[in-house]
Amino acid sequence: xxxxxxxxxDVRLASLLETAVDGIxxxxxxxxxLVYNAACERLFGYTANEAVGAxxxxxxxxxxxxxxxxxxxxxxxxxERKIIGIGREVAARHKDGTVFPIExxxxxxxxxxxxxFIGIMRDLRPRMxxxxxxxxxxxxxxxxxxxxxxxxxxxxxAHELNQPLTAIMLYLDALKRVAEKPPETRQDTGTVxxxxxxxxxxxxxxxxxxxxxxxxxxxxxxxxxxxVDLRHVISDAVDLASLGARALGIDVRVEKTPxxxxxxxxxxxxxQVMINLVRNAIDAIGEAQCGQxxxxxxxxxxxxxxxxxxDDGPGIEPAIxxxxxxxxxTTKESGLxxxxxxxxxxxxxxxxxxxxxxxxSGSGTVFELRLPLDVDNASGPxxx
Length: 384
Description:
Layout: H1 2-19, E1 23-28, E2 33-36, H2 38-44, H3 48-51, H4 62-78, E3 88-93, E4 99-110, E5 115-123, H5 125-152, H6 154-180, H7 189-218, E6 226-229, H8 230-241, E7 251-254, E8 262-265, H9 267-288, E9 293-301, E10 304-311, H10 318-321, H11 339-349, E11 353-358, E12 365-372
Parallel strand pairs: 7-9
Antiparallel strand pairs: 1-2, 1-5, 3-4, 4-5, 6-8, 9-10, 10-12, 11-12
Helix pairs in contact: 5-11, 6-7, 8-9, 9-11
């Protein structure tokens, strides 16, 4: 009867090892491979005949192999776990020398007369490739949204650029007239010329700053997450998004926050979200011809940073509210209606949320972007 049970157990184990999608290895306390399943053969390139009896360092890159014995001895002596029973991403080595990432889980089997360790391994390359494809698609969508936002702001941008350019032409005409005066009629010419040149340079700088902001915003960039102070992200976003607001009689105000609010984000993508929210608020007020103010604030609540954009416009119609964050939903005469959908996707990919609600004071809307704080770099962020 005992023999039957042993045979049945062996058959079940062999079947499990043969059919498992993940690589399974069993080693003894010295690291000698005792069991090496078919998935391991596909994963590492070594056959079971080559691997069984060899040290598990066979499938480790040198950086891991050199430290393996020390980790094993430390665990057996102190019981301190670094990976056993925890699991994490590590590097593995194929027979052809290729080093690649795997997810490794290790269990400790305490048998009556010995210690064995069971490792379960999964190739992370397919998951990482899929994630990279998703990131690339996200980058493309964000870029398209930026271009779309600038297209919607076309008339506003033309007006904003026309003002300093017109001023430059007037100043240059004044310079010409001063220069054409007869020498005997020129009084304090140097001072006048200096003042006109100074004003001309100031207007040229103003036009150049607008163009630089546009180029930086529309420029295609790879995803680059870093620790940044959200105050700088908001400042850059508002500078661009508020163009033309004053001409509409709309006051865009940013609440000053004295302390850094640091998150680990892609600053260009978060800037994209804020520009979309501020422009939507300005457009809502302008189209409805009601309200006159947009308020932007940034604060901390627990482990989250909260960026809010509120307006005193007409609010969101109930019929629109349910599909507000769905693609191609828009109340504007022009535009693709993808801004809020992409903004919510960006928030979610950063581990955050984006939501809208009515203002407590009555008419108007508040959009809140919540992001996890980067507590490890709270005192030393980079500027966006």
